[in-house]
C-alpha cells in the first residue's frame, strides 16, 4: 500500500513541477514586440523591428494574430515606394507607409491571399516614397482616425 501512495505522491510532485515550470516560462518569456515604441494618432504601440533581410521578407507571415497595441516596423536606408505582399499571411493587416516622421500612405484592411502563387499575389505600394513601413492589426488605422500627414514618433532603445 505504501508503494502505491509513494507512486501517487511522485506523480503529483512531477505534475506540480511541470506546471510551475510552465508558469515561470510564461512570466519570463520576452515579448516579440519589445524593440521600441511608436506613437501615432494619440496611441502608443510596442514594435518589433524587422532588422534582418529575412525578417523583412517574412514580416508577419505565419503569425495568426497581432495585438491591438503592437506592430512590426520596417526601416529602410532610402525612401522608395517599397512594395509589400501578403505571402504567408494568415490574417488581414493595415500597412502604413512613413517618410521621415509623417504618414505618406495607408493600405487598410489588406487581406491574405491563401493559396495564391507568388506571381499572383497583389503588390501593395505607397503613392509616395517611404523610408519606413508599419504593419498593424487590420482596421487599426480607421479605429484610431489615422490620416495621411499625421506625425509619427519612434523611440528605439
- CATH homologous superfamily identity of the largest domain: Protein of unknown function DUF192
Find the CATH topology of the largest domain.
Jelly Rolls
Q: Which shape, going by the Cα principal axes?
A: globular
Number of domains: 2
Low-confidence stretches: 23-30
N-to-C span: 61 Å
CATH architecture call of the largest domain: Sandwich
Largest sheet, described in full?
7 strands, mixed
Characterise the protein shown here.
With 157 residues, this protein is α+β, with helices and mostly antiparallel strands. It has 2 domains: 30 residues; 125 residues, Protein of unknown function DUF192 (Jelly Rolls), CATH 2.60.120.1140. It is built from 3 helices and 7 strands. The protein has a 7-stranded mixed sheet with strand order 5-4-6-3-2-1-7. Strand 4 and strand 5 form a beta hairpin. About 5% of the residues have low confidence.
Amino acid at each position: 500500500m505504501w508503494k502505491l501512495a509513494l507512486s501517487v505522491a511522485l506523480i503529483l510532485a512531477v505534475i506540480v513541477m511541470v506546471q510551475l515550470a510552465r508558469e515561470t516560462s510564461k512570466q519570463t518569456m520576452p515579448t516579440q514586440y519589445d524593440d521600441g515604441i511608436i506613437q501615432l494618432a494619440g496611441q502608443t504601440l510596442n514594435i518589433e523591428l524587422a532588422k534582418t533581410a529575412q525578417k523583412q521578407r517574412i514580416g508577419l507571415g505565419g503569425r495568426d494574430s497581432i495585438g491591438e497595441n503592437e506592430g512590426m516596423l520596417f526601416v529602410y536606408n532610402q525612401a522608395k515606394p517599397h512594395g509589400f505582399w501578403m505571402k504567408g499571411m494568415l490574417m488581414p493587416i493595415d500597412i502604413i507607409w512613413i517618410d521621415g516622421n509623417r504618414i505618406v500612405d495607408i493600405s487598410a484592411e489588406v487581406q491574405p491571399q491563401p493559396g495564391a502563387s507568388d506571381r499572383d499575389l497583389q503588390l501593395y505600394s505607397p503613392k509616395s516614397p517611404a523610408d519606413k513601413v508599419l504593419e498593424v492589426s487590420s482596421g487599426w488605422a480607421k479605429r484610431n482616425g489615422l490620416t495621411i500627414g499625421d506625425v509619427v514618433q519612434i523611440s528605439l532603445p
